[in-house]
Write a structure and sequence with these properties.
By secondary structure, the protein is an alpha+beta fold. It has a domain of 63 residues: Alpha-Beta Complex (heat- and protease-stable fragment of the bacteriophage t4 short fibre, domain 3). It is 17% helix and 13% strand. It contains three helices and six strands; from the N terminus they run H-E-H-E-H-E-E-E-E. A hairpin with a 2-residue loop joins strand 4 and strand 5.
Length: 182
């Protein structure tokens, strides 16, 4: 066993004290360290979902100036590192949208059927092409194997009627999406 020098000094000289006031300088140093870690783990252009408002999110980062993370709301960020890297002066607007992963060459049947779409490009709502099949035979319409009485004549066109909500969407939870710009 190696000998330990007799003048060994422990790395931690004082015990941690809890519930003590922390100076603004210490808070700024901690926020700077957190922001530095964000830079390592989340480079410019990264996005993060949060249940915080933009003001709350900025406060957690120590309100850096210039801002490093902002709400992804389509605003102009000319002069930011994001603009320098991407050439885009406006960030994407994620408000009210679902995100979709880029194909990046995927061709196994699970890729976006609309093909390769550029990063940050908006795609509008759409419902996949489909057909509702029913037959009119005499005074009945056959729908899904069951007969429903109809005053329509054989061969007539019948409207199925309107059903459903305001959108086609999976179960979801609303969040704020932030993007790193500096």
């Amino acid at each position: 066993m190696p000998a330990v020098a007799p003048n060994f000094i422990p790395i931690q000289q004082q015990s941690i004290q809890y519930n003590q006031p922390v100076s603004e300088a210490a808070n700024s140093a901690i926020a700077g360290l957190a922001n530095g870690l964000f830079f390592v783990f989340f480079p410019v252009g990264s996005i993060v979902d949060s249940l915080l408002t933009e003001a709350q999110f900025q406060a957690q980062l120590g309100n850096p100036n210039p801002a490093t993370w902002i709400l992804a709301d389509g605003r102009n960020v000319a002069g930011s590192t994001y603009t320098d890297i991407t050439g885009n002066s406006n960030i994407p607007d994620f408000r009210g949208l679902f995100r979709r992963g880029k194909n990046n060459g995927r061709a196994d049947g699970f890729q976006n059927p609309d093909g390769e779409i550029g990063l940050g490009i908006y795609t509008a709502d759409q419902i996949g092409s489909h057909t509702h099949t029913y037959q009119i035979a005499g005074p009945f319409i056959t729908v899904g194997g069951g007969n429903v009485w109809s005053p329509a004549f054989p061969g007539a066109t019948v409207n199925t009627g309107t059903a459903g909500g305001n959108q086609t969407a999976p179960a979801n939870l609303t969040v704020n999406t932030f993007i790193r710009i500096n």
